[in-house]
Design brief:
The complex is a heterodimer of chains A (about 625) and B (about 220). With about 625 residues, chain A is mainly alpha-helical. Chain A has helices spanning about 1-30, 40-55, 60-85, 95-115, 145-165, 165-175, 180-185, 190-210, 220-235, 240-260, 270-290, 320-335, 340-365, 375-390, 395-420, 425-445, 445-450, 465-490, 490-500, 505-510, 515-540, 550-560, 570-585, 590-605, 610-620, and strands at about 120-125, 135, 140, 215, 265, 270, 455, 540. Chain A is about 70% helix and about 5% strand. The longest helix of chain A is centred in the N-terminal third of the chain and has 31 residues, at about 1-30. Chain B has about 220 residues and is an alpha/beta fold. Chain B has helices spanning about 45-50, 75-80, 95-100, 115-120, 125-130, 140-150, 170-185, 195-200; strands spanning about 5-15, 15-30, 30-35, 55, 60-65, 65, 80-85, 155-160, 190-195, 205-210, 215-220. The longest helix of chain B has 16 residues, at about 170-185. Classes of the chains: A mainly alpha (about 625), B alpha/beta (about 220).
């Protein structure tokens, strides 16, 4: 019993820094509607800046707290600058471009941090004066943990007062509700957004700086925290600060209990194996029962509130068809034209990702279902093929067939829950499911090989050389892409698009929108699974990275860069993105920095994607109707 | 009387569809001018275009001698133009007090600022509901709040979009009374209205709008 109380207190302490970071994200989302992937990066920066400053001044309590204060203000300033230089230009773009740009920032911050602080972990120290421990119920309980437990409610109170009892808070809430109205009352609401973003960043920095005495500053802490923070924000209800606190406590308690009872086993699964999965299961359960989180409010559909702009999907003209035929011809002739092994490998990779991206575009562009976790089905396909090959000792041909089945099973199951939600909550649920599959692959070592993954998954002998494997991949990917096209122009595709543009209208004429979306979700999963299956034989191995967040974001980047509205867009986007990434990786160790800069730049320059920009240019050509 | 607002060659678009074609109008200081016309004739869009809320271009759009066509909406508001939208658009999650407070701006040119007491005598209901959330008020009460809120910015020109729309007859009468007292205070008003009966006796002049054009300046309806 005593140890349970200690465990609960430890959970509360770790809830505090989670809450600090999450409150910042929820404030930013609530006001600007930006899903800020870079929030974890701001948290990481808070920790790194604090570790450097504490090393300089931290000998005494005063110096320590001064260091924390300066670090926190610096992160707030960085956040404000990010808003002014990047996000401010994107508020009128589709929401997904803001998200993609913030992911570009993640990549930039990773490399900048690596360049400044180096790859080694930096360990923090307990602040002077708070470095002791109390004897509590026979256990030593750190004073610092007690400080954290008390700090979170205090911050909650300060934030609540700020938002509910000051004129600035009223301005922020007014800007949240109706920015245009506020502007026509003479308020320059752009600065309110900047201030809110800076405040949210500051809280992330505070979370990072205060987490430091309990651990270290390291380069993976940004992605580590962002998943948990998304869970907390979504479970609490996006935009609700009190909700974020409750959710942070809930998530931390569950996690602490799982860790503390690691060897306890239920149905043959140990608590240790459940630690990562548990919080995503909490999120999934909460979203299914309360689709807007514990204290959230239903999303209002504001102007242009459709997740994906409604546009007509035109059939390609004669010219485009000719270009595509020529393209396919060239692709088929590549090995004969003397392309080397490396370029064939690159083109194989492009084909795989073109199919992966096209499957996501099918779901998003036609179905209006935004997925932040499409890598789950890519990964399920990859693991399906790898397991069939390794565990069942099936040949490559049959293993490739197994890929879409596992992906379909996952998509069918997860999709049933997902299509019940809409908008950003749906996207977050897809992310949660992707993290669940990732955690399972990561922690079910006996089957999946855990972190190392499964190695030695090579193609059959006839497909072993790079040209034959290239032809195999090209044939399968082209066939799948043509199938996806057929679906888009079939009655099923029309029904899907009708449901995307006007869910109520579609329901009223007898279309079961949910069913159509569920089908689309499953189909998208199947095709992503096919791509995953090919991917594993291309690489010869598979690790949980194949379904981690960056993989899902890569797919989003391909679709958005290519243009979410056209069927050729994602293919183009995948080819360009894959080619660029390979080029950058071979060019420099700081390829993340360059890729991030490129992503941010493209988001700002081409807010409709490359294909969209092409279409806009074509519309201005003489002889075309507007 | 000097001209407070002068608009010439005003065009506006929703996306690629043009909805205003060369609208020209003028409002003199102290006047109450109405834009009359059926649904979809461009009355509301004209007001929004003046405020900078839709894509528009104008040969000339001068407020008190200053060109405002290139300004952002908040800058136009700061010049002294107050806009009351047709669909009320109170900040629902804010109390009446907070709605009024976010809109507060100091008056220009040594004019007397609107006081809360002044607003309460115009709309007595708001005093009773001072701490009520705007989202929990009736349509009429919300309409009063939108006007009061805009007055907190101490505008010199009030753009009133369909002030009587969707209100109960008794509230429409209160609204008319309120606008009459604003006129007596010397406030310049440009309003849009579908209901000629509401405008009668209230306005000095009117423009009849039809399919995106302000046809001719109607004679004084007084």
């Amino acid at each position: 019993m005593d140890s349970l109380i200690i465990q609960l207190l430890t959970g509360l302490a770790s809830a505090s820094s989670l809450f600090l970071v999450a409150s910042g994200l929820t404030i930013i989302f609530g006001v600007t509607r930006v899903v800020n992937f870079a929030h974890g990066s701001l948290y990481m920066l808070g920790a790194y800046i604090a570790v450097s400053l504490v090393a300089l001044w931290g000998g005494q309590a005063g110096g320590f707290w001064l260091a924390v204060l300066v670090a926190v203000l610096a992160v707030g300033l960085i956040g404000g600058l990010l808003e002014i230089t990047i996000l401010r230009r994107l508020y009128r773009s589709p929401e997904l471009f803001q998200l993609l740009a913030t992911f570009g920032v993640v990549l930039i911050v990773q490399d900048v941090t690596l360049a400044i602080w180096g790859p080694q972990d930096r360990f923090g120290v307990r602040p002077p004066g708070l470095d002791g421990a109390y004897l509590l119920l026979g256990h030593r309980f750190p004073v610092y943990d007690l400080f954290l437990i008390l700090l979170a409610p205090l911050v909650l109170l300060v934030l609540w007062t700020l938002f509910n009892r000051t004129r600035w808070g009223a301005l922020v809430r007014a800007a949240t509700e109706d920015p245009e109205m506020l502007a026509s009352l003479g308020v320059n609401q752009r600065w309110i957004l900047t201030a809110v973003f800076a405040l949210g960043s500051l809280l992330a920095g505070l979370g990072g700086a205060l987490e430091l005495p309990k651990g270290s500053a390291n380069l993976s802490m940004d992605m580590q925290i962002i998943a948990s923070v998304f869970v907390v924000v979504v479970v609490g209800g996006m935009g609700s600060i009190l909700g974020a606190y409750l959710a942070a406590v809930l998530v931390s308690l569950i996690r602490t209990l799982a860790v503390a009872n690691a060897e306890l086993s239920v149905l043959g699964i140990t608590m240790w194996q459940l630690e990562l999965v548990s919080i995503f299961i909490v999120m999934a359960v909460v979203l299914v029962v309360r689709p807007w989180g514990l204290l959230g409010r239903p999303e209002r559909l504001h102007k242009g509130g459709l997740p994906v702009e409604a546009t007509v999907l035109r059939r390609p003209g004669l010219w485009l068809k000719a270009v595509m035929a020529l393209g396919i011809l060239i692709l088929c002739l590549l090995p004969i034209l003397g392309a080397g092994n490396y370029s064939l490998y690159l083109f194989t990779e492009m084909a795989v990702f073109a199919l992966f991206a096209a499957s996501l575009q099918f779901l998003m562009g036609l179905g209006g279902v935004i997925s932040f976790g499409h890598a789950a089905y890519f990964g399920l396909g990859a693991y399906g093929a790898a397991l069939a090959f390794k565990a069942l000792a099936l040949p490559m041909e049959l293993a490739l067939l197994a890929a879409p089945f596992l992906a379909a099973a996952g998509a069918l199951f997860f999709g049933w829950f997902c299509v019940r939600l809409s908008g950003v909550y749906l996207a977050m649920l897809t992310l949660a499911f992707a993290q669940i599959t990732w955690s399972i692959a990561f922690q079910w070592e006996g089957l999946t090989g855990g972190d190392n993954g499964l190695l030695g998954v090579w193609p059959s002998e006839w497909a072993a050389d790079s040209a034959s494997f290239y032809y195999l991949v090209l044939a399968i990917c082209l066939a799948c892409l043509f199938l996806l096209r057929r679906f888009a122009y079939a009655p099923f595709g029309y029904a899907l698009r009708a449901g995307r543009d006007s869910p109520l209208g579609a329901e009223a004429i007898g279309i079961d929108v949910r069913l159509q979306r569920w089908l689309a979700f499953t189909l998208a999963g199947v095709f992503a699974g096919v791509a995953g299956g090919l991917f594993v034989f291309m690489k010869g191995s598979i690790s949980p990275d194949a379904m981690a967040i960056p993989q899902s974001v890569d797919a989003l980047a391909m679709v958005l860069l290519g243009g979410v509205q056209s069927l050729t867009g994602p293919i183009l986007g995948a080819a360009i993105f894959t080619g660029l990434k390979a080029e950058l990786v071979s060019l420099t160790n700081y390829w993340r920095l360059l890729l991030g800069l490129l992503i941010v730049g493209l988001c700002i320059l081409f807010p409709r994607g490359l294909a969209g920009a092409g279409r806009e240019m074509a519309a201005w050509l003489p002889g075309r109707r507007p | 009387m000097t001209s407070l607002l002068e608009v010439q060659g005003l065009k506006a678009w929703y996306g690629r569809a043009q909805v205003l074609f060369d609208v020209a109008l003028e409002v003199k200081t102290g006047e109450v001018v109405a834009l009359l016309g059926p649904n979809g004739s461009g009355k509301s869009t004209t007001l929004k275009a003046i405020m900078g809320l839709v894509t528009r271009s104008a040969e000339r759009m001068q407020f008190d001698g200053q060109e405002i066509a290139g300004l952002a909406e908040y800058q136009i508001a700061r010049q002294g133009i107050g806009y009351v939208p047709e669909d009320r658009r109170v900040f629902q999650g804010l109390t009446v007090r907070e709605n009024l407070s976010v809109a507060q701006r100091p008056p220009q040119n040594d004019r007397v600022a609107w006081s809360l007491d002044g607003l309460f005598s115009l709309f007595p209901k708001l005093e009773q509901l001072y701490e009520r959330r705007a989202g929990e008020m009736s349509g009429g009460e919300q309409q009063m709040l939108t006007i009061a809120r805009t007055l907190m910015g101490n505008p010199r020109l009030l753009l009133l979009d369909e002030p009587s729309e969707g209100l109960a007859p008794v509230v429409v009468q209160q609204m008319r009374q309120a606008i009459l007292s604003l006129k007596q205070e010397g406030l310049t008003v440009l309003l849009s209205e579908q209901n000629p009966a509401f405008a009668e006796g209230l306005i000095d002049r009117s423009y009849r709008m039809d399919r995106g054009r302000a046809l001719a300046a109607g004679k004084s309806a007084v």
